[in-house]
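Deliverable D2.4 — example input (structure tokens):
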């Protein structure tokens, strides 16, 4: 299934219980079952359903975070000047908290009951490209254009750990191997693998994508799905590292974001071709793909092993890689 969005999309999310998918567009529109001009002429960079799908959150370069009623399309609450700079990413934390990341590397945590900031981390020196949350350790992992991975502790209210600066911009992040590995996509197409507890430097570097890896989606503990600037969606194995097969494509237009439907029957993808595509996930995974000889030849692993010789800089006990579905700006 394909939906023409009429503008370049930046983010997408699936409703937790209904067959609804939302996209935030460059022209400021939120494309849902109906279209809402959520942020005026500014782009709508981040989108997340919350409160059991009753509301949807959006973030924008106008520095605001907006909560909209899904059923009526009306604004429930707006955090004006939520950040001093453009807001790029949103991630749900708990039933009453959400985190956001901006263009200058600041990550903020919001108390949704009081509509107030309860934590702020100056984690990076450049834009926050991606965020993920580990509920068991209460830590936010962030990647940035400054080439670093950060670990922000909600318990200690500080940046608990940060990697050394990479020559690559880090663009995307997922946690795999039962919480033991953090995988980051980069501007040059390499995947950097960090071991939990050893964040100063990556323990493995897997080169296989010909262009930047802009979005990552964990399929299971051993496989992820990547979206690249070359327009190809790939199935990738982690430890052993290999590109298993290409799954789908957007005609050479960069893949902006990937997401699973709640029942995991569909994979959603958005791209600079201004299209939202919904793929039958089982069909994608079970359809044999022709081997791409040139791509397979380009795949190489820069690390002979996965030893962690660097000094431990954070708790060695890995978290579970499960997520939580939170409430934001409660409509009660």
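Example output (designed residues):
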């Amino acid at each position: 299934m394909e939906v023409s969005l009429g503008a370049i999309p930046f983010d997408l999310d699936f409703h937790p219980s209904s067959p609804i998918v939302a996209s935030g567009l460059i022209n400021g529109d939120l494309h849902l079952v109906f279209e809402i001009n959520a942020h005026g002429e500014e782009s709508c960079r981040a989108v997340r359903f919350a409160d059991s799908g009753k509301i949807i959150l959006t973030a924008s370069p106008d520095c605001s975070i907006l909560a909209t009623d899904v059923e009526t399309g009306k604004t429930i609450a707006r955090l004006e000047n939520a950040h001093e700079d453009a807001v790029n990413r949103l991630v749900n934390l708990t039933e009453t908290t959400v985190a956001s990341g901006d263009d200058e590397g600041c990550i903020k945590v919001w108390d949704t009951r009081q509509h107030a900031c309860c934590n702020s981390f100056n984690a990076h020196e450049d834009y926050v490209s991606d965020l993920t949350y580990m509920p068991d350790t209460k830590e936010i992992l962030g990647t940035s254009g400054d080439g670093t991975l950060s670990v922000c502790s909600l318990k200690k209210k500080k940046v608990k750990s940060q990697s050394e600066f990479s020559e690559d911009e880090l663009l995307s992040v997922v946690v795999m191997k039962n919480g033991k590995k953090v995988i980051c996509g980069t501007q040059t197409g390499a995947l950097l693998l960090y071991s939990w507890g050893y964040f100063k430097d990556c323990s493995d570097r897997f080169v296989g994508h010909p262009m930047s890896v802009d979005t990552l989606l964990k399929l299971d503990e051993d496989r992820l799905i990547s979206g690249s600037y070359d327009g190809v969606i790939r199935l990738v194995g982690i430890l052993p590292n290999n590109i298993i097969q290409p799954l789908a494509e957007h005609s050479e237009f960069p893949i902006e974001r990937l997401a699973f439907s709640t029942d995991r029957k569909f994979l959603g993808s958005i791209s600079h071709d201004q299209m939202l595509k919904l793929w039958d996930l089982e069909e994608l995974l079970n359809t044999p793909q022709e081997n791409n000889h040139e791509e397979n030849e380009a795949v190489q692993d820069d690390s002979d092993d996965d030893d962690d010789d660097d000094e431990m800089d954070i708790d060695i006990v890995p978290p579970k890689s499960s997520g939580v579905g939170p409430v934001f700006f409660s409509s009660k």
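The chain has two helices and 29 strands.
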